[in-house]
Design brief:
The chain is of the alpha/beta class. The protein contains 9 helices and 13 strands. The chain has a domain at 117-368: Glycoside hydrolase/deacetylase (TIM Barrel, Alpha-Beta Barrel), CATH 3.20.20. Strands 5, 6, 7, 8, 9, 10, 11, 12 and 13 form a 9-stranded parallel beta sheet that branches. A two-stranded antiparallel sheet has the order 1-2. A two-stranded antiparallel sheet has the order 3-4. This is Divergent polysaccharide deacetylase family protein.
């Protein structure tokens, strides 16, 4: 007998042949795959699984960051216990300035607005040149002692004050009076904050929102001056912002890369700033800015920042920018830096400014910077 004579599926006298259970094996494999998938879904939380993604390198620090150094700023404030306490008595209109021998010399610094420098408007008190020719730029400036001489000088402007109560309080507590403070027009209790800043001896600038290139995706805020608006509308919005504060020496742009690149839009605003006896500070963030040329047309007092100190807001980067600012001051005689009231920035500036005298550099307010007149 051979295989041809055996019935199908039988091995004849040689014994019974084994049949592979293909169906059972396939069922086991399928069940295993489903079980593995179920476990993966329970263990792995990835709602974006399968979506495109990007990787970014995160720098580490040997010293680490404190929680306060990464706090969020720029949030509109309400009322709260962090406001400067009200007082029934008026703050003294003077600050101490050290003389050449280390003795303190009293320097008058007005805390309240001079009524001769105020124009009443529907938008609030607007700055103006007094009938006798006095300008807010001069009256509200912090005097620089004559003994400063030819030593290298640095002016620092810290902005975004008035938005975060914590950030504003930290700036007033940590920064020396020679640092100029830039206030945003959107905060609460601005009169009290600015009065405290003046009492402490600081010059003030008003931050005016100007149109950036990616507006309105990136919106500087209410009453932003826009390239598409006519001159009358932009000057009116400038007045709306100006009426929020008093006792400031000038204007500094908030954003505004597009607006400051368009002379047709900027010129009427720059002319208005000059007519009201104010300084214009270009924060130096846009290489396309024509602010200096525009200021020249109207003889507007003008200054331009050399560096944004905290463009990269990490302690190492801020320290590096401050060292770079010192080098500019030693080379040119004077340098201007701008920054925001971030916790890490304030901490770095407090330590850095305390050692400037020992390094032969003088800290000066923004009005000490040479300007066009």
């Amino acid at each position: 007998m051979n295989d041809l004579t055996n019935p199908l599926g039988f091995g004849g006298s040689g014994g019974r042949k084994f049949r592979v259970p293909v169906g059972a094996i396939a069922a086991v494999i399928t069940a295993s795959l489903f079980a593995g998938l179920a476990v993966w879904l329970m263990v792995v939380s990835d709602p974006l699984g399968g979506e495109p993604y990007a990787r970014a390198r995160i720098e580490t620090s040997d010293t680490g960051y404190a929680r306060v150094d990464i706090a969020t700023v720029g949030v509109k404030s309400g009322t709260g216990e962090l406001l400067p306490p009200p007082s029934d008595s008026k703050p003294e209109a003077g600050v101490p300035v050290e003389g050449p021998t280390g003795a303190e010399v009293a320097v008058a610094l007005p805390v309240e607005a001079d009524t001769a420098l105020i124009e009443t408007s529907p938008f609030g008190p607007l700055p103006r040149v007094a009938a006798d020719g006095r300008r807010p730029l001069d009256v509200y400036a912090r005097p620089v002692p004559g003994f400063v001489g030819a030593s290298p000088k640095i002016a620092i402007v810290v902005g975004d004050l008035g938005l975060s109560q914590t950030g504003t309080q930290e700036a007033l507590a940590k920064l020396p009076p020679e640092v100029t403070l830039g206030f945003a027009p959107y905060g609460a209790s601005l009169d009290r904050w600015t009065a405290k800043a003046r009492q402490d001896g600081h010059e003030l600038l008003l931050q005016v929102p100007l149109e950036p290139f990616d507006y309105p995706d990136n919106d500087p805020g209410e009453n932003t001056l826009l390239v598409g608006k006519d001159a009358r509308q932009n000057v009116e919005n400038l007045h709306r912002v100006m009426g929020r504060l008093t006792t400031y020496v000038g204007i500094v742009n908030y954003m505004g890369a597009r607006f400051t690149s368009e002379a047709a839009a900027l010129d009427p605003v720059m002319q208005e700033i000059a007519l009201r006896g104010l300084l214009y500070l270009d924060d130096g963030s846009s290489p396309r800015s024509v602010a200096e040329q525009s200021a020249g047309k109207f003889k507007t007092a003008f200054a331009r920042a050399d560096l944004v100190i905290d463009a990269i807001p990490t302690p190492n980067e801020i320290t590096g920018r401050l060292a770079q600012l010192e080098q500019i001051a030693r080379t040119r005689g004077l340098a201007v830096g701008v920054a925001s009231a971030r916790p890490a920035t304030l901490k770095a500036l407090a330590g850095w400014t305390s050692g400037l005298d020992g390094r032969g550099i003088t800290l000066v307010p923004i009005t000490a910077v040479p300007q066009q007149n």
